């Protein structure tokens, strides 16, 4: 399977009045064609900033990508000029954002918003773009698409608006779809429908997917691989089955322990992760998770570990083997 995206040393900072915020701290990862990668972690860990950096959507000032490369089909996304990156965004790489109500323009019809990318990237005229928009709305299972195409966003439910956003993302048949917590604002039933929809469309179109979420429960049945992020670092990465069967980082254990389980034979209380996330302005030299970690040793407070291989396609950044003591 060919590599579609290769990220090396990605580093993004925000220059504020209070100091430099180290939002993404030199992360590495790869994505193969047709693969689904889940990126998980709590709010503020750098999930969204990392993919916004790839898309060159970090607001500047105060943000800036200060290091790294992101090779996509042989070209570095971080070093493209403005015209080149615009030809990639919405065309070869599409993005679905968290809140469809704020992502859609309230004064433009659904047809106007979906058709724009078709006219810009595929050089369709308005009639062709309108017909293709109807096909896309049908594809994402919006009922009576022909008659609803001229409606405005407020006339759609939250779930339907998110389906419109997915239709916009798929309009140019992208090689990569980035979904940034697309189900967060939706109820559980609609969440399941959106996840199933993306899985079906992925199989039909053959695109790769990066799914960003704070919920490990969602990626269990969706992703092929999972990157766990904390304080701007990838602290564990593995195939999804390996991560759930054999988590090797204390933070991953904590995330899994906080998921409600309906299949457990014995009812157990959810296990919270004590403490607060670190201050990204004044980062200590040690492991950023050490103050919250029940497995921490002296070395954890002095030196931040690098990712090391602990199994097939399984890497973890931790000085302690949670299954067997010190490394």
Share in helix: 25-40%
Low-confidence stretches: none
Strand order of the largest sheet: 6-7-8-3-9-10-12-11
Question: Beta-strand level of the residues, as a percent range?
Answer: 25-35%
The total beta strand count reads 14
Average pLDDT score: 87
Map the helices and strands.
Elements: E1 3-16, E2 19-32, E3 36-40, H1 47-54, E4 63-72, E5 75-76, H2 82-88, E6 93-96, H3 100-103, H4 110-121, H5 126-139, H6 145-148, H7 158-170, E7 176-180, H8 188-205, E8 208-213, H9 216-219, E9 225-230, E10 233-239, H10 240-245, H11 250-257, H12 298-302, E11 308-311, E12 314-316, E13 320-321, E14 325-326
Parallel strand pairs: 3-8, 3-9, 6-7, 7-8
Antiparallel strand pairs: 1-2, 1-4, 4-5, 9-10, 10-12, 11-12, 13-14
Describe the structure.
By secondary structure, this protein is an alpha/beta fold. The protein is 31% helix and 26% strand. It contains twelve helices and 14 strands. The chain has an eight-stranded mixed beta sheet with strand order 6-7-8-3-9-10-12-11, with helices on both faces. Strands 2-1-4-5 form a four-stranded antiparallel beta sheet, covered by helices on one side. Strands 13-14 form a two-stranded antiparallel ribbon. Helix 4 crosses helix 5 (126-139), helix 4 (110-121) runs parallel beside helix 7 and helix 5 (126-139) packs across helix 7. It is globular and about 65 Å long. The two termini are 33 Å apart.
Give a nutshell description of this structure.
With 327 residues, the protein is an alpha/beta fold. It has 12 helices and 14 strands. The protein has helices at residues 47-54, 82-88, 100-103, 110-121, 126-139, 145-148, 158-170, 188-205, 216-219, 240-245, 250-257, 298-302, and strands spanning 3-16, 19-32, 36-40, 63-72, 75-76, 93-96, 176-180, 208-213, 225-230, 233-239, 308-311, 314-316, 320-321, 325-326.
């Amino acid at each position: 399977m060919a590599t579609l995206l290769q990220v090396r040393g990605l580093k993004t900072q925000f220059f504020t009045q209070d100091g430099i915020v180290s939002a993404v701290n030199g992360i590495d990862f790869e994505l193969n064609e047709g693969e689904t990668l889940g990126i998980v972690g709590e709010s503020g860990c750098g999930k969204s900033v990392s993919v916004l950096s790839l898309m060159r959507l970090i607001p500047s000032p105060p943000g800036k990508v200060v290091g790294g490369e992101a090779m996509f089909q042989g070209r570095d996304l971080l070093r493209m000029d403005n015209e080149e990156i615009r030809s990639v965004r919405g065309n070869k790489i599409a993005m679905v954002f968290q809140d469809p109500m704020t992502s859609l323009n309230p004064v433009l019809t659904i047809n106007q918003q979906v058709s724009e990318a078709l006219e810009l990237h595929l050089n369709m005229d308005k009639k062709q773009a309108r017909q293709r928009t109807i096909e896309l709305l049908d594809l994402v299972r919006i009922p009576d698409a022909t008659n609803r195409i001229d409606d405005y966003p407020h006339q759609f439910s939250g779930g339907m608006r998110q389906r419109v956003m997915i239709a916009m993302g798929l309009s140019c048949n992208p090689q990569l779809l980035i979904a940034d917590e697309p189900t967060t604002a939706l109820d559980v039933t609609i969440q399941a429908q959106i996840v199933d929809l993306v899985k079906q469309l992925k199989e039909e179109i053959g695109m790769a997917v990066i799914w960003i979420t704070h919920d490990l429960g969602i990626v269990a049945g969706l992703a092929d691989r999972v990157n766990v992020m904390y304080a701007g670092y990838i602290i564990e990465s593995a195939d999804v089955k390996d991560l759930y069967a054999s988590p090797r980082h204390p933070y991953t254990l904590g995330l899994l322990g906080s998921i409600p389980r309906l299949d457990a034979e014995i009812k157990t209380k959810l296990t919270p992760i004590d403490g607060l996330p670190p201050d990204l302005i004044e980062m200590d030299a040690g492991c950023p998770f050490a103050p919250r970690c029940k497995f921490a040793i002296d070395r954890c407070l002095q030196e931040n570990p690098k990712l090391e291989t602990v199994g097939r396609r399984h890497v973890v950044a931790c000085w302690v083997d949670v299954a067997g003591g010190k490394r």
